[in-house]
Each structure stands twice: as C-alpha cells, then as structure tokens.
C-alpha cells in the first residue's frame, strides 16, 4: 500500500480516501442511519458491553469510528465515560453539534492519540471494514495497546466471504472512493486473538434488512 505524507505524519493512502468519502456522505449518513436503525440485538450488544465495562474494568471508553456520535451517546446513556474518535472531520463536526456534552476528536484507529493502557473499553462499531486486511493486525494491536489490563473490546462488523468492494457511490448517490473488505468471522476472530486479546463472546446476526450478508459482534478482553 502506498503511503502519503500528510503534515508531519506519513499515513497509509487509504485513510485519505476513507476520510474524504465519509466527509461527503456524513450528513446523509447521520439522517438515514440514526441509532434507531439497530435492531434489538444491536442495542443489546451496546448495553451488555456497558454493563461488562462498568462491572469489570470501569475506565474510560473510546468509540473508534464513531461517525455522527449517536451510538457514543447511547453508550454514555448506559453510564460509560465515553468519547468518540473518527477519521472524518465532518462526522466529528456533526457529532459535536448533536452531543455537545461529549468529546469527539478527529483521529485514526491506525494510530490512536491515546495513552497506553488507559482505557476500560474500546468500541469499534462497523468502522474497521474500510481498513485493508494487511493493516488490520496493526489496528487490533492499537486497540490492545490503549486498553488497560482487563479492559474490553466490542467489535461490530459486517461479515463476508473475503469480499473486496470498491463502490463509486454510497448513501443515496454520493461519490465515494473508499474500499471495503468483508472478511469471514474466523479471520476477524484470528485478528483479535492475534493481537493478544481473548474473545469472550460472539453473536452472529443476519442483516435485519436482508440481503444475505450478516453482522457479527465480538466481545474480547485484554
Ligand atoms: C459506517 S460508519 C459507522 C459509524 C458509527 N460507528 C455507527 O455505527 O453509527 C464508519 C465510520 O468509521 C470511520 N472510520 C473508518 N476508518 C477509520 C479509521 N481508520 N479511523 C477512524 N475512523 C474510521 C468513518 O469515517 C465512518 O465515520
């Protein structure tokens, strides 16, 4: 993967495509995909995660790839001390406007601006699938780095049969240049465990809107 130089930092080129694409679709995404889009199982995963963190690690939580922040707010409503991080400045702007009581920062899951071992939890809710698979070990290593011993990860993601998607438009016709990688659950489980985290639970859910592809939620502990 080619690298681009951005300011002081050399970052993988795919990040620029993800950031600009989500800037383009952010307003439509916020309108069309509010937290109410989740089915009862999706909401239950967030609630269960909050209960586990409060009971076992009780530290701050980062919602990584938080988008417009609706689910960050839902997690806060469950009692978590949670902040959001997203690569798209427009997403962060919308999140701050909708939830001024919470903290949202522009940043990447490939290099989180967070101290080592400081978090009780990391949530990545349908945000890792734009990362090329060869970069995912570094992302999961980053999740582990920021988690305190005993801290928890909740990963929600699309599943697929190693599918590579290159859509040219999304969310009602907005042009996008990001790529998406839909991996089998076993690959994702291996990535989580390869980073040294222990999977404690997994739920597979058929997409509530149909279409064949399913969702998965992985709970893991550091
Ligand atoms: C499909 S949206 C999901 C938003 C939110 N988690 C939700 O479920 O409503 C994916 C989000 O992940 C963010 N994202 C993708 N790759 C990222 C990265 N490397 N670092 C931070 N955010 C990223 C995108 O900018 C986008 O806002």
UniProtKB/TrEMBL annotation:
GO biological process terms held by the UniProt record: methylation
Methyltransferase domain boundaries: 61-151
InterPro entries: Methyltransf_25, SAM-dependent_MTases_sf
Leader sequence residues: none
Record keywords: Methyltransferase, S-adenosyl-L-methionine, Transferase
Pfam families tied to this protein: Methyltransf_25
GO MF entries: methyltransferase activity
UniProt-recorded name of the protein: Methyltransferase domain-containing protein
Species whose genome carries this gene: Jiangella alba
Species classification: Bacteria, Bacillati, Actinomycetota, Actinomycetes, Jiangellales
């Amino acid at each position: 993967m080619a690298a681009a130089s951005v300011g002081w930092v050399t970052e993988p080129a795919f990040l620029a495509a993800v950031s600009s694409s989500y800037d383009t679709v952010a307003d439509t995404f916020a309108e069309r995909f509010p937290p109410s889009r989740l089915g009862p199982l999706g909401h239950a995963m967030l609630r269960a995660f909050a209960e586990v963190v409060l009971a076992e690690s009780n530290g701050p939580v980062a919602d990584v790839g938080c988008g417009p922040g609706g689910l960050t707010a839902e997690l806060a409503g469950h009692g978590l001390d949670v902040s959001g991080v997203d690569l798209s400045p427009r997403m962060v702007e919308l999140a701050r406007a909708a939830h001024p009581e919470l903290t949202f920062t522009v940043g990447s899951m490939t290099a989180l601006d967070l101290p080592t071992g400081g978090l009780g939890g990391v949530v990545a809710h349908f945000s890792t699938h734009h990362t090329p698979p060869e970069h995912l070990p570094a992302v999961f290593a980053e999740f582990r780095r920021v988690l305190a011993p005993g801290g928890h990860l909740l990963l929600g993601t699309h599943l697929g049969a190693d599918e590579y998607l290159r859509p040219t438009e999304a969310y009602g016709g907005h042009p996008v240049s990001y790529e998406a990688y839909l991996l089998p659950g076993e690959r994702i489980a291996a990535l989580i465990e390869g980073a040294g985290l222990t999977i404690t639970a997994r739920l597979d859910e058929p997409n509530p809107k149909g279409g064949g592809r399913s969702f998965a939620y992985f709970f893991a502990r550091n």
